[in-house]
Design brief:
The complex is a heterodimer. Chain A has 20 helices and two strands. By secondary structure, chain A is mainly α. The radius of gyration of chain A is 22 Å and the shape is globular. Chain A starts with a helix and ends in a 6-residue tail after the last helix. The relative contact order of chain A is 0.10. Chain B has one domain. In chain B, strands 1-2 form a two-stranded antiparallel ribbon. A two-stranded antiparallel ribbon of chain B has the order 3-4. In chain B, helix 7 packs across helix 10, helix 17 runs antiparallel to helix 18 and helix 17 crosses helix 19. The longest helix of chain B has 32 residues. The chains are: A mainly alpha, B mainly alpha. At the A-B interface, helix 5, helix 6 and helix 7 of A face helix 17 and helix 18 of B.
Chain lengths: 511, 521
């Protein structure tokens, strides 16, 4: 079994959704139910492969790439099919495996207009493959390919099944990301040529960079290219403007996947590629990344307070939360980066859940205008308390997952690594801490105006407004459970991520 | 090797050995049209339904198959006038397979446009032109190259204007002919100057009589040579449609019958590009410092013009024309990179050829609706059989707006089109991604970072170009019902094959990259 998993585990996990997507293309479009079953079955099977990998993962040596497969793929460009899992990618793979089946389950009776479950679910499955592939890739070209693959399904998801402004949002999303990844690709190629490497293997490139004599200025430029690629995806201030549009216009499922997993591709890229390969350039960039991160925190929070649309508010809160993740990364300490990894998972669960709620509210009220909503706890008590619970988690209440993403990141800024300026990062720390207060403000404000009080006259006797259906419940409860579990047992992630992160952060430990 | 001295003495003249076997792909392509003309005029019943199409496609595929059997050959033919090596063979393969696909696209088009009587002519001209293209790819001698280019071009001029009822096609043919003739003149002048400087028209002899071994007066001869190179470069740039010699492209591509546009954008362009690369590398390799800057300027201008001006277009055929100018930019980058770029050049040419054939093919098929019987006598009518048919729609005037809702009217075609467009945009898991990546890698490997940067940025801008088409098809919804289209099965087969290649080679490009490895000589 272990041999089998070593050779085939990752490949099966990554490509099961894609194979299912191809199979679905061959099936007739009607009835929908077949496609839903196939899609759910495929994503469950993927989760099973993933679970087998997680069980057989050797947690005592989490810093080592496990289940690695390294085969030649495209010899002309020396790109290899080179995949593996370590303690950094494992939590994110688990997150993806967890979220996608629930999203598909939610789609059972929530296929957005204009329908066509077949196409919608095929896109979801292609996204699944793209996201998993990005998290397992050890080869830069392979990484890039998967990183790009997620673009198109999401573009179509927004563009076809989105809201009023879907065209604008879809193209904005596509172009922003494509532009960033073009610069990222230049950086990858530059690394490859300047190091004279024989492969695009990340670990090998990191080693070659450390032994070669590439000028620091060049390294800083290369890091800059990656920064554009990953930073736009995160998104960092000032490249965040695609995010509110994309989130607001995307269908619920699209928003959930976007928030839960897609944004993490950017932060993951920083941790997996940019920092380990170019540790010296990272030191040069860290103060600026930290600065943009705290601007993002404050700007996102203030942006939230100015929103009148529930989904847009949640989108801006994403900008703020990803700011904490980036702040954690910019401290260049194992503590901060571990916090970032935790923050990624926590934000994925919590914000994903918030978007689910927003989607269901929209289904019932046909609006997300905060001023028109109200009294959710009266009209739909279950949805009301889930919204309350999730906002609590989102504002970082201790005991829930959100806390462990934010608090350690702030704490890590107290004492940054790599010889970074302590006073500067302590200023960042204070500003970030103020951000948590603002977060409490906008989230509680949201909760008050939507859940408390009495339903507005407009919707008071509307029969469409029902409580969470059984199906919604089934697809939401796992999220809630995980938020609590991670809140009480944060070690689940910290323990896994600790070894590889510490190993990576060793270069920045000030001696 | 023949020199002019030996010709002066007829006794010493040796008839060069003709390598029939190695020449057979070219001979098949050149003789098949002659046979077709003969047979069809003797046996009138040959002009039946799809028979000429099947004949042409069959001959082209036979030529391709024979090309494949020669795979490991590498020698000079016809006393050094032609050469077959991997480079030639890949070029032949692209042209031959391209012709087969074009013939299949032409199949129904000719009938639908009311030219069934001339079906033989279309096919014959297509094959003759392709034979010229195959000569261009294999030529080792500038005169032979020139003959090849003329055969290729003249047949194409006629093909462009063969749609007699369409003024726009006539205009395109005229424009293409006049400009093409001028560029041929410029090119021939370039050959003359190079001959004057070196005393030879053989590429290999030109190369060895390079800068250091010119004649007694290196200054004069060297400048003759440089002017000659520049003129030839201009001629080639016209043929491949590189900016700033591109201005004919949008007009001609729009006006030409759509399958012929596909032919010009694929086989003609690839033949010219490969001939271009061969001459520049083999004959003028020693002068690369002189011509490389020019090629890089052409590349940058093509990238910029193709993507930016393309954005301002509404007409679909013009958009695709500008997109092909953008592709030329990438091809020129590969040529710029000399030996490092040969594999990229072939990979790009091959993948570009079938992507673009498929794209134009789909455009044509989308407009092939059921013929409408004419109700009154007006000038727009066409006689098809015994029926008076209203002038049929064609893709020439199709704009982005006309595509709105195409995903509902033509679900299959729209899906296939989207794949091809993504490939042209360079999206991963399509062959276009690997093609662009290789071209950029080639540029980086010769340290042309600026060129690589331009290419990447132009690719992003060009992505908008393709995305707009996809947006029009999928996201601008209207309440269209599936339309009754009337394209031939053969066209569909050709287009589906293009799409399968695009995706298949996108996921696993190894077969194509194996094909083009070791092509550099």
């Amino acid at each position: 079994m272990t041999d089998f998993l070593n050779d085939w585990g990752i490949t099966l996990m990554v490509f099961t959704p894609l194979v299912a997507a191809f199979a679905m293309m061959l099936l007739p479009g009607k009835p929908d139910i077949i496609h839903k079953q196939v899609a759910l079955g495929a994503s469950t099977l993927t989760a099973v492969w993933g679970a087998l990998l997680l069980f057989n993962f050797d947690y005592d040596s989490a810093s080592v790439m496990q289940f690695g497969v390294d085969r030649s793929w495209i010899d002309v460009v020396n790109a290899r099919y080179d995949v593996g899992i370590d303690g950094i990618s494992l939590p994110l793979i688990a997150l993806t495996l967890f979220v996608v089946p629930l999203v598909i389950l939610y789609s059972w009776n929530h296929i957005p207009k204009p329908g066509n479950a077949k196409a919608f679910l095929i896109l979801t499955l292609i996204l699944h493959t793209g996201m998993l592939g990005t998290f397992v890739a050890r080869d830069l070209v392979l990484f890039f390919v998967f990183f790009e693959v997620v673009l198109l399904p999401m573009y179509f998801m927004i563009g076809v099944w989105g809201g009023e402004q879907r065209l604008y949002a879809a193209i904005k999303f596509f172009l922003y990301t494509l532009f960033g990844s073009a610069l990222m690709l230049v950086s990858f190629l530059a690394l490859y040529w300047l190091t004279g490497s024989e492969t695009f293997n990340m670990a090998q490139l990191a080693e070659l960079v450390s032994t070669s004599d590439i000028a620091l200025g060049t390294q800083v430029l290369i890091f800059g290219g990656m920064f554009m690629g990953f930073g736009i995806k995160v998104p960092m201030f000032p490249f965040h403007t695609w995010l509110p549009d994309a989130h607001t216009q995307a269908p619920t499922q699209g928003s959930v996947i976007l928030a839960a997993v897609l944004l993490k591709l950017g932060t993951y890229g920083f941790i997996r590629i940019a920092l380990p390969i170019l540790p010296d350039a990272a030191v040069e960039w860290a103060p600026w990344i930290g600065l943009l991160a705290v601007i993002g925190i404050i700007y996102g929070a203030l942006g939230c307070l100015a929103q009148t649309d529930m989904k847009r508010l949640i989108a801006f809160s994403s900008v703020a939360h990803m700011g904490y993740v980036m702040l954690g990364i910019s401290t260049l300490t194992s503590f901060g980066i571990s916090a970032a990894i935790f923050g990624m998972v926590a934000h994925g669960l919590i914000t994903g859940m918030l978007f689910f709620i927003a989607g269901s509210v929209k289904d019932r009220y046909h609006t997300l205008e905060i001023s028109r909503l109200g009294g959710l706890l009266v009209q739909a008590p279950r949805m009301g308390w889930i919204l309350g619970f999730t906002t609590m988690a989102s504002l970082g209440l201790p005991g829930l997952a959100g806390f462990w993403g934010e608090f350690p990141a702030i704490l890590a800024a107290y004492n940054p690594g790599g010889g970074l300026s302590q006073p500067l990062f302590r200023v960042y720390m204070v500003v970030a801490a103020i951000g948590t207060v603002l977060a409490a403000a906008y989230l509680l404000w949201l909760l008050q105006r939507t859940a408390f009080g009495n339903p507005s006259e407009e919707f008071a006797d509307n029969p469409e407004i029902t409580d969470a259906s059984k199906l919604e419940y089934i697809s939401w409860v796992p999220f809630l459970i995980m938020i609590v579990v991670l809140g009480f047992v944060p070690g689940l992630i910290f323990d896994v991520a600790d070894a590889p992160v510490s190993e990576m952060a060793e270069v920045w430990v000030v001696k | 090797m023949i020199t002019f001295q030996t010709v002066a003495n007829p006794d010493a003249f040796e008839v060069p050995i003709v390598e029939w076997g190695a020449l057979s792909p070219l001979l098949i392509m050149a003789l098949a049209p002659i046979l077709l003309v003969t047979v069809s005029s003797v046996v009138p019943s040959f002009k039946k339904a799809s028979l000429p199409t099947v004949y042409t496609a069959g001959a082209a595929l036979l030529s391709a198959a024979v090309t494949a059997t020669l795979w490991s050959d590498n020698r000079l033919l016809m006393d050094g006038a032609l050469t077959i090596d991997r480079f030639t063979l890949v070029g032949w393969l692209i042209i031959a397979v391209g012709v087969a696909a074009i013939a299949m696209l032409l199949d129904n088009y000719i009938v639908k446009q009311g030219y069934f009587e001339q079906i033989i002519e279309w096919n014959v001209l297509l094959m003759i032109s392709a034979a010229g293209g195959m000569i261009v790819v294999a030529a080792q001698d500038l005169i032979v190259l020139f003959v090849g280019i003329e055969v290729l071009s003249i047949a194409t001029y006629v093909l462009v204007g063969l749609h007699l009822r369409k003024p726009i096609a006539q205009e395109a043919a005229f424009k293409y002919f006049i400009l093409g003739a001028v560029s041929s003149g410029v090119f021939a002048y370039g050959i003359a100057l190079v001959y004057g400087a070196t005393g030879s028209t053989y590429l290999s002899e030109i190369a060895t009589s390079g800068r250091n071994s010119l004649g007694l007066n290196p200054v004069v001869d060297s400048s003759l040579m440089l002017v000659g190179i520049a003129l030839m470069l201009g001629g080639f740039a016209f043929k491949v449609g590189a900016a700033p010699f591109h201005s004919w492209t949008p007009d001609v591509y729009q006006g030409a019958p759509t399958p012929i546009t596909a032919y010009m954008a694929s086989a003609v362009k690839v033949a010219a590009a490969l001939g271009f690369a061969r001459v520049m590398h083999d004959a003028f390799g020693e002068f690369s410092v002189d011509w490389q800057p020019l090629v890089s300027v052409l590349a940058v201008l093509s990238l910029v013009a193709g993507s930016f001006i393309g954005l301002a277009q509404k007409n679909l055929k013009r958009i695709l024309a500008y997109s092909s100018i953008n592709h030329v930019g990438f091809i020129l980058i590969a040529i710029y990179a000399l030996d490092e770029g040969v594999e990229a050049l072939l990979f790009y040419s091959a993948s570009y050829a079938f992507t673009v054939i498929g794209s134009f093919g789909i455009l044509m098929m989308m407009t092939q609706t059921e013929p409408v019987l004419a109700e009154s006598d007006d000038e727009k009518m066409v006689m098809i059989g015994a029926n008076k048919i209203r002038n049929l729609e064609s893709a020439d005037g199709m704009t982005l707006d006309d595509l709105a809702g195409a995903s509902k009217r033509h679900p299959l075609l729209a899906g296939l089109f989207a794949v091809l467009l993504f490939s042209q945009a360079g999206v991963p898991f399509t062959v276009g991604f690997w093609a662009k990546l290789q071209a950029i890698l080639a540029a980086v490997s010769v340290e042309a970072y600026l060129l690589a940067g331009f290419a990447i940025l132009a690719a992003v801008v060009a992505a908008v170009l393709y995305l707009r088409i996809v947006v029009a098809m999928y996201l601008k919804s209207d309440d269209s019902e599936p339309a009754r289209t009337n394209y031939s099965k053969l066209s569909l087969i050709a287009v589906v094959a293009c799409v399968l290649l695009t995706v298949g080679l996108g996921i696993y490009p190894e077969p194509l990259s194996d094909l083009v490895t070791n092509a550099g000589s």
